[in-house]
Fold this protein.
Amino acid sequence: MPEITTIIILVISLIAVFIAFWIGSKVGASRKHNEWVNELPNHRKEAIMKSRAVLGGHFTENLAPYLPNFPYLPTECRFIGKPVDFIVFKGMDDKKIDEIAFVEVKSGNARLSPQEKNLKEAIEKKKVKFEEYRIPKELTKKDGVEFNEHGLLNDKRAVVGFFCEDCGRKIKHRGKCLPCNVKRKRDGR
């Protein structure tokens, strides 16, 4: 008989522990939820303030060349945004560029980002060059290109390798040719 009593007491104790754990987890979750609900207005206010600061920074970056102490002429500044705010071509108004400056606009306690620091180091090490890129002539040729009666481009240099799914006409893409597409839309298919 004492063994059954011991077993019953153990089972009741285990059930009590599980109920206490369940109640504790529910109370803890409720407290955490209430804590978040109480903190939510502060988080929203903080997010709005950060957003305003970022927007204000972007606005002042674009406005910077027109501010009184800006060291360059606004007409010689070109806004880039990333990784640097402006590239200034000093002397461009006089059609004689004699200096190029990379300008990063900061306000308040803002610091250079790692990418901006890398750019600054590359410029200071004089790892800057001028490079000219020429577009391949095949891409800029105008011969063999004309417009048809519908105002569409006919490129006679293009390779015809597809056939219309409806009429079998040679076309330059997969699917249906223009007349078949027009007919299909007109017939409501």
In short: The first helix runs from residue 2 to 63. The CA atoms of residues 119 and 125 lie 10 Å apart. The chain has three domains: 1-64, 71-124, 146-187. DSSP finds four helices and seven strands in the chain.
